[in-house]
Write a structure and sequence with these properties.
Blueprint lengths: L1 H19 L16 H8 L11 E6 L2 E8 L2 H6 L11 E11 L2 E2 L8 E7 L4 E7 L7 E2 L5 E8 L2 H4 L8 E3 L2 E2 H6 L3
Parallel strand pairs: 2-3
Antiparallel strand pairs: 1-2, 1-9, 3-8, 4-7, 5-6, 5-8, 9-10
């Protein structure tokens, strides 16, 4: 009788081990905790995935250039660079807003360190900030004149000596001409 119970325990342990290591099974995180079924399903949901790459445009910041994805809708602004795992030193994302306002950016679900420039309606950089991954404290602009925000790899502005006061342009002209036509 004892050997029968022991063999049942061995068989049950073996089945449990094989079942937990099947492809697609949940895996422990760095702390050893297993994700719940809800957490596993949520990680795979579209809301927890990066948005598809947006159309890009070459921007000039003084003599330097960068290829920026253009985020011009509410859904694109809200998702931004969330859940992305890398950005090269030649890419960024330009957020284009319909009118100047006091913008505030934070790093909710953003996994990579970024820098951002707050830019006025004429395309002039007003402020530059470094941002920390997953930091949900908003970095509020000091002015209500921000119409564009450019996010880049952290340190891009400093590395490329792009400072406050530099004008941003595209191959079509100023940011205002490119996105809103001549006024």
């Amino acid at each position: 009788m004892k050997s029968f119970k022991l063999s049942n325990w061995v068989l049950a342990g073996w089945l449990l081990a094989v079942g937990c290591n099947r492809p697609g099974a949940a895996t422990a995180d760095a702390t050893g905790a297993q994700p719940t079924a809800t957490e596993s399903a949520a990680a795979d949901s579209p809301e927890n995935q990066p948005q598809p790459k947006l159309p890009t445009m070459k921007l000039w910041l003084g003599p330097k250039s960068i290829a920026a994805e253009i985020a011009s809708t509410s859904a694109q602004w809200q998702k931004g660079m969330m859940f992305r795992t890398n950005v090269t030193d030649q890419e960024g994302m330009l957020f284009v807003f319909p009118r100047p306002a006091q913008q505030a950016f934070w790093m909710h679900n953003t996994l990579i360190p970024l820098s951002c420039a707050y830019i006025d309606s004429e395309g002039v950089i007003l402020e530059i900030h470094d941002m920390v991954p997953r930091d949900e404290n908003p970095i509020k602009a000091a002015t209500d004149q921000v119409q564009y925000v450019l996010e880049t790899q952290k340190g891009w502005f400093e590395k490329n000596q792009v400072k406050v006061g530099v004008a941003v342009a595209t191959e079509r002209g100023s940011l205002k001409e490119t996105f809103f036509g001549k006024r």
